[in-house]
Design goal:
With 130 residues, the protein is mostly helical. 86% of the residues lie in helices and 0% in strands. The two termini are 33 Å apart.
């Protein structure tokens, strides 16, 4: 090989500097955050459960309304309908809140993780010289 030997320190500094440039780019951070938020949404276990419960509640409401249109209307059917409507609203609220929380937590996790990674790289670079 006809290449001159270079110091390990110079190579490490070059790699760290280039990694910092890539990590600290806003577009790259946004892309990583978006991908991780999508992944976070897929891993959410509460959201599918709430959505299934909402579908079941809506089916019960439809069935109850069919019974009412066929003439089955008592005090208990009215109470049951009100309870189902309240449950439907509550589940809708939980779904919205879950989506919002996942969005916020994923974004915070990604941004703080990116900052922590960049900080770790920067500290490693600076402490290695001492």
């Amino acid at each position: 090989c006809h290449k001159k030997p270079v110091k390990k320190r110079w190579i490490e500094d070059l790699v760290v500097a280039e990694a910092m440039k890539m990590v600290m780019d806003d577009d790259v951070v946004d892309a990583i955050v978006s991908m991780l938020m999508d992944l976070q949404g897929l891993e959410n276990t509460n959201l599918p459960l709430y959505q299934q419960q909402l579908r079941e509640t809506e089916t019960k409401i439809e069935n109850l309304l069919k019974a009412i249109t066929e003439g089955v209307f008592t005090k208990s059917t009215k109470t049951l309908l009100e309870e189902l409507e309240a449950a439907k609203e509550e589940l809708g609220n939980r779904i919205s809140l879950e989506k919002l929380e996942n969005h916020k937590s994923a974004k915070n996790l990604c941004v703080s993780g990116s900052i922590a990674s960049a900080s770790w790289i920067w500290q490693r670079k600076n402490t290695a010289r001492c």
